[in-house]
Amino acid sequence: MTGTDPATGRLAGPTIQEQTRQAVANCLAVLEAGGAGYDDVVEVGVLLADPADFAGLNEEYARAFPTDPPTRYVARLGVEPPGVLVSIRMTAMTS
């Protein structure tokens, strides 16, 4: 998921915080549609356009997972659409 607002089809904003917040919300919507939530997430994959945005990413990530965050990897985006700063993937397990 990228930081694209599904209502407008546009990026949530130009900052890593705005795009991360929206990408996380987009992931949560998919999780909930499948009967899961943040507590079911076991792994998160993050692709960043610029590694310098890591601190801003962490600000928003900590809001979604304030305690006991799932395993996470972060890598650099190779080729990104214009303006896209972050892409997030969450894997969840439910019983």
Automatic annotation (TrEMBL):
Source superkingdom: Bacteria
Alphabetized InterPro entries for the sequence: RutC-like_sf (IPR035959), YjgF/YER057c/UK114 (IPR006175)
Family designation: Belongs to the RutC family.
Protein name: Reactive intermediate/imine deaminase
Organism: Angustibacter aerolatus
Source species taxonomy: Bacteria, Bacillati, Actinomycetota, Actinomycetes, Kineosporiales
